[in-house]
Design goal:
By secondary structure, this protein is an alpha/beta fold. 37% of the residues lie in helices and 18% in strands. The protein has a five-stranded parallel beta sheet, with helices on both faces. Helix 2 packs parallel to helix 5 (131-144) and helix 3 packs parallel to helix 4 (84-91). The structure holds 1,3,4-trihydroxy-5-OXO-cyclohexanecarboxylic acid (DQA). 1,3,4-trihydroxy-5-OXO-cyclohexanecarboxylic acid is lined by residues 12, 75, 77-78, 80, 101-103, 105, 112.
Length: 148
């Protein structure tokens, strides 16, 4: 059985491609999902690509990853800067975690410079556009290994 990597997306990322394209680009989340699935095949892992606008749903998926996930790629979106609850959930997950931001949060408003999730993440990728997801997936596979 190939290892399963969760790729979790927080609020408003369902609007990717339509929302502030000068910041987040024109690719949709479906495009990102497709690109990640293609890369996952190449890397010999499975991906579960999920998005929610609700904090509790993201926490429930992190809990599920405790059961069957080898690693987590997470773009917590605005919850990055606010959610101790997502940090706590990630702290209860044993595998590698890579945090992704499409935009370079450090070039933006100061409230985006702090991340609760970075206190847990093994790596952080910011400002690489949607390519950041594929970079993160490669890193998760390096950390978690490809086979069961
Ligand atoms: C984001 C950056 C966050 O500050 C913002 O709230 C998002 C997206 C990014 O991918 O660049 O919604 O996580």
């Amino acid at each position: 059985m190939p290892k399963l990597v969760y790729i979790l997306n927080g609020p408003n990322l369902n609007l990717l491609g339509k929302r502030q394209p000068h910041i987040y680009g024109s690719e949709t989340l479906a495009d990102v999902e497709r690109d990640c699935a293609t890369l996952a095949l190449e890397l010999g892992v499975q991906t579960r690509f999920l998005q929610s606008n609700t904090e509790g749903q993201i926490i429930d998926w992190i809990h599920q990853a405790r059961e069957d996930g080898a690693g987590i790629v997470i773009n917590p979106a605005a919850y990055t800067h606010t959610s101790v609850a997502i940090l706590d959930a990630l702290n209860a997950f044993d595998g590698p975690v890579i945090e992704v931001h499409i935009s370079n949060v450090h070039k933006r408003e100061s409230f985006r410079h702090h991340s609760y999730v970075s206190l847990r993440a093994d790596g952080v990728i910011a400002g690489c556009g949607t390519e950041g997801y594929r970079l993160a997936l490669r890193r998760i596979v390096t950390l978690a290994g490809a086979d069961a």
